[in-house]
Write a structure and sequence with these properties.
Blueprint lengths: L16 E4 L2 E7 L4 E6 L8 E10 L1 H6 L1 E6 L2 E2 L1 E6 L2 E7 L5 E5 L7 E11 L22 E2 L3 E6 L2 E12 L5 E12 L9 E12 L5 E4 L3 E6 L2 E2 L2 E8 L12 E9 L5 E9 L4 E4 L2 E4 L2 E2 L2 E5 L13 H13 L4 E4 L6 H10 L2 E5 L7 H4 L2 H18 L5 E8 L9 H14 L3 E6 L14 E4 L5 H14 L5 E6 L17 H17 L4 E4 L5 E2 L14 E2 L12 H11 L18 H19 L1 H12 L1 H10 L5 H25 L4 H11 L2 H11 L2 H26 L9 H10 L7 H11 L6 H27 L3 H27 L1 H14 L3
Parallel strand pairs: 25-26, 25-32, 26-27, 27-28, 28-29, 29-30, 30-31, 31-32
Antiparallel strand pairs: 1-12, 2-3, 2-4, 4-10, 5-9, 5-12, 6-11, 7-8, 7-10, 13-14, 14-19, 15-16, 15-17, 15-20, 17-18, 20-21, 22-23, 23-24, 33-34
């Protein structure tokens, strides 16, 4: 726990007691292991964990203080008890909360047992954030941030809000300070005026000199409710906060006794004076045009997960400041409050957002979800509104804002944010041209990941022209990199290409006269789902950082520093771009073609079987029923050839569309298990291994179909031996031999979008053909009326697919999300 005048939340005060609860706790995983763990820390699995420790209290402390449990962040559903008595339950992993502890449950000595349970299980529809899709952040669990017991006087200052106004010439400031009072409420028969008064003092943070003192005002109440107390301070010649001069003030609010003038409670905050306004579609800070040069910071670290130490957070902020940035976007969730304290001190404007990313409008517009988001927004703003570094409040990132239904989410949240604080409000979108909610917010914030710099510049200029009355910022732009790839900038995944991207795109933004940009991202991070669309070589690792996961500077770091500061950057080598078309498809196809041709010409029985199965399937399967006209080796070889051909075509499709978010998310639903998807992703990105493994997989599927056929044959009151079932399955597949030459050229063929749909249609036509051959073979072998077999077979397949669909839809809302991603592609014209 960080103490002193720079603590992130609830600064130290001489009238208050803090009992630090960081350190060793025992833990027990539900239906799992137990042991001892250091808190704060992050656990990297999904489940419920109960933490426990003892705390010592003295008799004098119990008499003097009202105690509160303070937790700066625990993910996701958190409940706490002390000595077995319920204290609080909190929903949300990234906002802080304070819960009063009833005095009658506390004991003198070390026998006070604190038990905290956390459950980081997320829902696909009912949590903030939702169960992560691909490219989300890691869903760490546990007590992620500081935890302590706060002792306040029995009547205490619960909250202080300081806001300032500047004169037009910026030479005089007026600070308005509002204090909320809480504690043991006097009896309802008491008069409105109490025996308490309140006043504030303002100090220069750097010199500690007293700047101003307010008048003393009485503290009143209505019935059993305390009224807020309000005082004003006039500050001549104020020192203004800005990224260039992050001057801070230290505000002390005093609750005093009317009778004795004794200070009963003190509440301290850091604050700053600055003026942010919109003028003719421009952002003005202290009367000057503000251009945001920012980075997106991901709260993740190889040693600490999302439970970064204060020292590690400060190292990150120092690196961000030294690159020339003047802003940080916390695009995924509110950060540790100490990060905002660092932003105040280092001079970094903060854009702070709710953890609402890629949420479909059908979920977003639900009343319960708006209520859940409103609670999170209220907690975020009330905790952080005194930070001068906080520039704007974000309502989410890339949700379905292009649909009018999302207005029922955006409109009430904008109203709530404005009621709580005067700062600007925004959300980030990928679809500014068709956005249905942009008129409700103050800033046009657009994700723009276009790689070609000419197209990027044109899109930026179009944004500026379309939003002339509002500030425009690029909320997210960046370039993924393959670590240790130094092939030169001709290779789009090289370190040189990432550096060149930064120089060119930052210059394009500067020349376009928009209001700023945010680079995605400062650091690499681990995702919560394995992703096909990453290029790091690790499906869990997202490598868009200008520093690595371990905070090692990349070439892009120096490129960003040069671009942000207007310096020239060293020339980069062109290098070469390796071909993206794997030659393995051609080579493996040739091997299969030559082997098949040899077998066809050299073995008369195989040749005749193949010809008869294609030309006269009825007689062929009738002969299979009556006599063994095909052999097990020939059937097995045919099955392996067809399986290899299917593997080539499947690999070609998947490898060609390896950059598709639609496919990436579809795999997450169909494969269900993240571990299975990780294996499949690694195979897709390595076609050689894919062909070997999936040839065996497809052959095993054929074996399984043969086995199922043998098992279900008695349903038709017919006895079937294993070999006919095996022969029917294998010799139904010869039409798929067409896939061998197709697989050799398919990858190149799909370079022209004209051939993509016909190729997919051909693929499915062939499989339908094989399916009907298979059902026809069953009807012949079993001597059953063919329409009956067709009906049973088709209904069985439809039934299995329907069960899978309803299962995925029930457990993961798959149809909602696949519709979201499909509409996303259509809206962007892809």
């Amino acid at each position: 726990m960080h103490r002193g005048a720079d603590a992130g939340f609830l600064l130290d005060s001489p009238t208050r007691l803090k009992i630090d609860l960081s350190g060793l706790w025992t833990y027990k995983v539900t239906d799992g292991p137990e042991g001892v763990v250091k808190v704060p820390s992050a656990f990297d699995f999904t489940g419920e964990v109960t933490f426990q420790r003892l705390v010592e209290l003295s008799a004098s402390d119990l008499d003097k203080y009202q105690f509160h449990l303070v937790m700066l962040g625990a993910n996701y559903n958190t409940s706490a008890t002390i000595n077995g008595d319920f204290i609080t339950n909190h929903i949300g992993g990234y906002t802080s909360f304070i819960a009063p502890i009833p005095s009658n449950i506390l004991q003198i000595g070390k026998e006070n047992v604190i038990r905290v349970s956390t459950d980081n299980q997320l829902s696909a529809t009912k949590t903030i954030p939702l169960r992560s899709q691909v490219w989300g952040w890691r869903n760490y669990g546990g007590i992620l941030r500081d935890i302590y017991i706060l002792g306040t006087p029995k009547v205490y200052i619960a909250d202080v809000v300081a806001s300032s106004e500047l004169s037009n010439d910026l030479t005089v400031a007026r600070m308005k300070v509002t204090a909320a009072i809480d504690g043991i409420v006097p009896s309802a028969t008491d008069t409105m005026r109490t025996n308490y008064q309140l006043y504030v003092e303002l100090y220069d943070k750097q010199t500690t000199a007293l700047i101003a003192t307010s008048q003393v005002v009485p503290v009143t109440r209505q019935g059993k409710q305390w009224d807020s107390a309000r005082v004003d301070l006039n500050i001549p010649g104020p020192r203004l906060w800005s990224p260039e001069t992050p001057d801070l003030y230290y505000l002390k609010t005093y609750l005093v006794s009317t009778a004795t003038s004794a200070k009963l409670d003190e509440y301290h905050i850091n604050t700053g004076i600055r003026k942010i306004e919109l003028l003719n579609g421009k952002i003005m800070l202290n009367g000057k045009r503000l251009l945001l040069k920012g980075l997106i910071w991901m709260e993740d670290h190889p040693l600490f997960g999302s439970a970064l130490t204060h020292e590690e957070m400060e190292k990150d902020v120092a690196l961000i400041r030294s690159v020339g940035a003047n802003a940080i976007r916390f695009s995924h969730h509110p950060p540790h409050p100490y990060m905002l304290n660092l932003c105040d001190r280092y001079g970094l404007l903060a854009l702070e957002e709710l953890p609402i990313k890629n949420v479909p409008a059908s979920i977003l517009s639900e009343e319960y979800y708006v209520e859940l988001a409103s609670t999170a927004l209220r907690e975020m703003i009330t905790r952080d509104r005194n930070h001068p570094s906080v520039f704007a409040w974000g309502l989410g990132d890339e949700f379905e804002s292009w649909l009018p239904a999302s207005r029922s989410y955006v409109e009430p949240l904008v109203k709530l944010a404005k009621n709580l604080d005067s700062r600007l409000v925004y959300f980030a979108t990928r679809h500014q041209a068709s956005d249905a909610c942009s008129d409700l917010v103050d800033i046009t914030a657009v994700t723009l990941m276009t790689r070609d710099v000419k197209d990027f510049k044109r899109e930026v200029e179009d944004l500026r022209a379309a939003s002339a009355s509002k500030p425009v910022i690029i909320a997210k732009m960046g370039s993924e990199v393959q670590p240790n790839n130094h092939h030169g900038y001709s290779d789009p995944l090289s370190c040189e290409a990432q550096a060149r991207y930064m120089v060119q795109h930052i210059d394009a933004v500067k020349s376009s006269n928009i209001d700023g940009l945010f680079i995605w991202s400062f650091n690499d991070w681990r995702g919560d789902r394995p992703a096909l669309t990453v290029n790091s070589g690790n499906p869990w690792m997202h490598t868009l950082g200008i520093v690595s996961y371990a905070r090692e500077k990349r070439l892009a770091y120096e490129a960003v520093r040069a671009a942000f500061n207007g310096d020239k950057f060293a020339a980069l080598p062109i290098g070469s771009n390796p071909s993206s078309a794997p030659i393995i498809y051609v080579l493996s196809g040739l091997v299969i073609l030559i082997g098949t041709a040899y077998l066809y010409n050299a073995n008369r029985r195989f040749r005749e079987g193949l010809n008869r199965s294609m030309v006269n399937a009825y007689n062929f399967f009738a002969d299979v029923r009556d006599q063994r006209i095909v052999t097990i080796p020939h059937s097995t070889i045919l099955g392996l050839i067809v399986s290899a051909a299917t593997a080539i075509v499947t690999s070609s499709f998947l490898y060609f569309f390896r950059r598709s978010l639609l496919l990436d998310n579809l795999l997450s639903y169909v494969l269900i298990s993240d571990r299975v998807k990780e294996i499949v992703v690694r195979l897709i990105l390595d076609p050689k291994q894919f062909l070997v493994v999936f040839t065996l997989v497809f052959f095993m599927i054929l074996l399984l179909v043969s086995f199922v056929l043998w098992i279900v044959a008695p349903v038709f009151k017919v006895r079937m031996y294993p070999f006919p079932a095996y022969a029917i399955t294998m010799w139904s597949t010869p039409p798929l031999l067409i896939l061998v030459p197709l697989g050799m050229i398919l990858f190149r063929l799909m370079d022209s979008s004209f051939y993509i749909v016909p190729s997919i249609v051909l693929f499915f036509v062939l499989f339908i053909w094989v399916l009907f051959r298979f059902l026809k073979g069953i009807s012949i072998i079993l001597d059953v009326y063919p329409p009956k077999v067709y009906a049973v077979g088709l209904f069985s397949i439809i039934g299995v697919l329907a069960c899978l669909y309803f299962y995925l839809d029930h457990t993961q809302s798959a149809s909602v999300y696949m519709t979201f991603w499909y509409n996303d592609l259509l809206s962007r014209g892809h």
